[in-house]
Design a protein that fits this description.
The protein is mostly helical. The protein contains four helices and no strands.
C-alpha cells in the first residue's frame, strides 16, 4: 500500500512496515482530524457509542463480520 501511494520503500520489511502509518499520521495532522476526546466526547460515553454502533445497518456491509461491542470499544479507545 505504501508503494501504491508513491512512498519509496527499501524492500526491508523492518524498515518499511511503518511507512504507510507514518504517512497517514502526517495526513491526519495536516487535515486537522481530531481525536474523540478533542471533539468533547467523554471516555464514559464510549460504551454507549459502541452499543449504538452495533445497531448501525452499515455494519452488515463491513468486510469483517461478527464484530462485537468489545471490538468497537477497542477501536474507540484507540481514537480517544
Amino acid at each position: 500500500m505504501a508503494e501504491a501511494i508513491g512512498l519509496e520503500t527499501t524492500g526491508n520489511i523492518d524498515t518499511d512496515k511503518y511507512l504507510l502509518s507514518d504517512e497517514l499520521l502526517k495526513m491526519i495532522k495536516l487535515l486537522g482530524v481530531k481525536t474523540i476526546s478533542e471533539q468533547g466526547i467523554s471516555e464514559e460515553s464510549l460504551d454507549r457509542l459502541a452499543e449504538d454502533a452495533l445497531h448501525e445497518p452499515v455494519l452488515n456491509f463491513n468486510p469483517r463480520q461478527g464484530v462485537t461491542k468489545e471490538d468497537i470499544l477497542d477501536i474507540l479507545k484507540k481514537a480517544f
